[in-house]
Amino acid sequence: MPLIKKKVKNKEYYYFSLSFRVLNKTKNFRKYIGANKPNPTELNTIEDNFCDEIIKKYLHDKFESKYLTKKQLIQIILFNETYFKKYNSLSPTKRSKYDVDKTVLFTLTTLTTEEVDVDIKDVLGAVNKKEKDLNLREQICKNMLSALEYIKNKENLNLNYIRQIHKITMADFETKKPGFFRDKQVYIYLKHTKDILNAEIKYRPPEYDLIVKKLKKIIDWYNNTEINPLEKAVIIHFEVYKIHPFLDGNKRVCRLLFNKALLDNGFPLINISDKKNQYFDALVNSVEKDDPTYLVKFTHEKYLKEILDFLKS
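and the corresponding structure tokens:
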């Protein structure tokens, strides 16, 4: 029960309590609220304010929740704290191996999600070979690895930053116009759906002459919003995907921007697309309904599972 009553020298005092479970441990928070028992309306206000206090304690700032409840955000924060406690306890050798393994897996997944013809040997070749010795498949992987390194630098998001991510991702592939916004209409297809081959979704990206205006709007939001890091990551992915600013590689750029938002705010890299069909379903549902709720819900579940898998390993 969130309300706890204590009796001291025949006087009753009330405390408000919140409990969250992370793996096999429970984290408890308790707040003294006085000698008068609050009514249900007052209790809701107490809970809401207490959640704000907990969130600020961990994130050192005020963060809003639009799609997640405040309790869900606290759960995410506690999972994040537990993750880094374990991560930082690893020996330098184990930590380095874990980082490399995670980077390799992310690179493989984010490319094969889009049916790019690469495999684990290509990614490992990109990691271990010199630039001049790379074949075509390894070069594609090398580009993604380089882009991943690029987003780890905490730079402000602007038009040139987004262009640069694309330029790095599509380096050496001039037909993809690396670093340049598209100059024609593009369409979004359900490539992951077996039953309806290459069916265009209901939503169609804006005309190319609106790209800069729309990107500037979402960039301004990104640099000024007080929304929490997970929702911020989802929304930048969602909005840039809707704009589809490039001829190719849009989803790769979106997943990199998604992880930039996480990394910039002290959250780990999340391999959001390793469950390909579920990821696309959530993304397309959100885009077609112009509502990021579906992608937020999917990401929230994916985040918790990925952290739990690491904690159990």
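(Above: one complete record from the training split.) The first strand starts at residue 3 and ends at 8.
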